[in-house]
Amino acid sequence: MASKNKITMTRPDDWHLHVRDEKFLASVLPDTAKRFARAIMMPNLTDPVTTTERASEYRDRIINALPNEYKLTFDPLMTLYLTDRTTTSEIKKACDSGFVHAVKWYPAGATTNSAKGVSDIVACYDVLETMAEEGMPLLVHGEVTDPSVDVFDREKVFIDQFLEGILKNFPTLKVVFEHITTEHAVNLVIGASDNVAATITAHHMLLNRNALFKGGIRPHHYCLPVLKRENHRQALIKAATSGNKKFFLGTDSAPHTRSSKENACGCAGIYTSHGGIEFYAEIFDKADALDKLEAFASFHGPDFYGLKRNRDKITLSRATVAIKDSFPFGDEECVPLRAGGSLEWSID
Ligand code: NCD
Ligand code: ZN
To answer: What's the whole-number average pLDDT of the chain?
Structure first.
């Protein structure tokens, strides 16, 4: 039920999230667990989560790092990191586990901790076949890694060179095109069958690529896929607020230490979990589509993954909430999106 200054809606889930590991977990998990009932945990740890056994251990570390108040209310949904050597029996194990909900395809070298990802997707065709049979979703980081391709074109070229072929060869495979950034990706997803969906981040709807260079170089606005032109930002907002069940919330909140961002070769990733639902409320409000937020944030994701929708509710109110300049992250600090600024919505 939407009204102008307050919205009560089914508790949302985050379908794409990085929480890192060990000492970093406790610094970021409360932001997510306060807002979301579940989150798809990305497997790109320094030592990637390539097996069901590792996913189980990682899940335990996440639950141990949660504050007591969230240990029973927050459910980390685990994923496996696909490599050229992933076996069909490992996939079957993951499907039987009940806690692994997807397999992530990082083209090797595409992004943070992707070096051990897939160098040749054709080598994974037997695995994709098994996933299609078992109904296990493939989550795709959709960018080519060819250094001769312009960095702003890598998503479009990936669609042409890889994604269309995969969708044709595996028509029943569930595919989530993750953190889409272009109108090409929006159109691909709209035109594909119902087993193809996409997550959309808040930062790709809040910022265009000018934000990388506003008054100087802005490492805290650098992420992958990189921010795009204004027409693409508009296409993402239109898709997210359209009510189309193929689009759902995935923050891609990706914390890095300040020192690894403010660096001659800074890491890709933007931290947004401190406003994990509030940023989306702001975007939907500005698009005059607050009535579409609940389905995007709380219904389309579980429906696609074949999970139950959450039963409890949250309330968001229009209110100015200050965002800190930084917060403790392990024994360092992390600079969140819009540091020193404010959120326009608050969660009760
Ligand atoms: C992510 C990270 O830091 O792990 N970075 C990012 O810019 N989004 C990886 C990813 O999702 O590409
Ligand atoms: Zn990510």
So the answer is: 97
Q: What is the pLDDT of residues 165-207, one digit of tens each?
A: 999 999 999 999 999 999 999 999 999 999 999 999 999 999 9
Which homologous superfamily is 6-347 in?
Metal-dependent hydrolases (3.20.20.140)
Distance from C-alpha of 109 to C-alpha of 88, rounded to nearest angstrom: 24
Closest ligand 1 atom number to CA of residue 44? 4
Mean pLDDT of 267-284: 98
**Active-site residue 126, yes or no?**
no
Is residue 143 in contact with ligand 1, taking CB distance under 6 Å?
Answer: no
Cβ density class 15-30: b for 16+ within 10 Å, e for less: bbbbbbeeebbbbbbb
Domain boundaries, the chain: 6-347
- First-to-last alpha carbon distance for the chain, in angstroms, is 16
Ligand 1 geometric centre to CA of 233 (Å)? 19
112: Cβ below 6 Å to ligand 1?
yes
State pTM to two decimals. Answer: 0.98
